[in-house]
Design brief:
333 residues; alpha/beta; Quinone Oxidoreductase, Chain A, domain 1; Rossmann fold; 2 domains; six-stranded parallel sheet; 17 strands; 27% strand; globular
Length: 333
């Protein structure tokens, strides 16, 4: 049996929940969960904000643990090995995206917490090729958020060939944004943080930003016209996107990793005349996740976390809902 915490209804409290996962499949591994980050996506699924939650919901997709058992076709992983598990717990392995090494774009991928029980538990199961070995030297206690928040902001650096000479801005200095600042600084970019919080402006500079701009000051944003090669938006709220498009250089890109649910109100002439682009991306492939971990280890990048015990899980969720966490919450045993 696997002992977990589950919500049985939208916005429900997480309660103890035990389930029998059945026989371990040949391509699966079972992970002893030692730590698990809490992501806003966990809240979105608990609350059924996206309309695809399947109850009971066992959240948790920023898992760090050790391999407890290995299926007969998963021999590249060994019992006791430290590993991480992120948004995906499996892929179809036969579509064009999977064959191209873009498993994160697989239309039939298995989400870790939708139609599958996640890592708010003592154990979790997943397809072996979605489980990422953790290199020696990575701090295991704080590593969980790298497997969702970290890879979400690292992936665009690889996908769009971001250069060390680029000027890059980050909108929103929270769970995603605080990691984006660290990665971009280590990548060599000139980094600007857009934030509405006076307190976070100072923190952003400590995390790797070279400059800050007030995201609520239209004149300050207008004064940055034509400055950035790339803007990464990590927020899930509606902003004046045309104002931000004006801060892009010709051929600049406004890229979304924050899941705002409002339609984008964008004037097309700003795109046409500057040959600018608007795009979005999810988490990265297993190969990109492995690359991210090596980069994080080399540059000593780690999430800033607040720690809670698993048996204090509802207090941890309440802390995340409050918006006051700095900057990611991690459950530990």
């Amino acid at each position: 049996m696997i002992n977990a915490y589950a919500a049985s209804e939208p916005k429900g409290k997480l309660e103890p929940f035990a389930y029998d996962p059945g026989e371990l499949k040949p391509y699966e591994v079972e992970i002893d969960v030692h730590h698990c980050g809490i992501c806003h996506s966990d809240i979105s699924v608990i609350d059924n904000e996206w309309g695809n939650a399947q109850y009971p919901v066992v959240p948790g997709h920023e898992v760090v643990g050790t391999i407890a058992s290995v299926g007969e076709n998963a021999s590249h992983l060994t019992v006791g090995q430290p590993v991480g598990l992120g948004w995906h717990a499996g892929y179809c392995n036969h579509c064009a995206a999977c064959h191209a090494g873009d498993q994160n774009l697989c239309a039939k991928s298995q989400a870790t917490i939708i139609g599958h029980h996640g890592g708010f538990a003592d154990k979790v199961r997943a397809a072996a090729n979605s489980v990422i070995p953790i290199p020696d030297g990575i701090d295991l206690e704080s590593a969980g958020p790298l497997f969702c928040g970290g890879i979400t902001v690292f992936n665009p650096l690889v996908q769009f060939d971001v250069k060390p000479t680029d000027k890059v801005a980050v909108i929103g200095i929270g769970g995603l944004g605080h990691l984006a600042l660290q990665f971009l600084n280590a990548w060599g970019c000139d980094v600007t943080a857009f934030t509405s919080s006076a307190d976070k402006r100072k923190e952003a500079l400590g995390l790797g930003a070279h400059h800050t701009l007030n995201s609520r000051d239209g004149k300050e944003i207008e004064a940055a016209a034509g400055r950035f090669d790339l803007i990464v938006s990590t927020v899930n709220v509606k902003l004046d996107w045309n104002l931000y498009l004006g801060t892009l250089k010709p051929r600049g890109r406004l890229h979304f990793v924050g899941a705002t649910m409002d339609p984008l109100d964008i004037g097309v002439f700003s795109l046409i005349m500057g040959q600018r682009s608007v795009s979005g991306s999810p988490v990265g492939s297993p190969a990109t996740m492995a690359r991210m971990l090596e980069f994080a280890l080399r540059h000593k990048i780690k999430p800033v976390i607040e720690k809670f015990r698993f048996d204090d899980i509802n207090a941890a969720v309440a802390r995340l809902r409050s918006g006051k966490a700095r900057y990611r919450i991690v459950l530990s045993r």
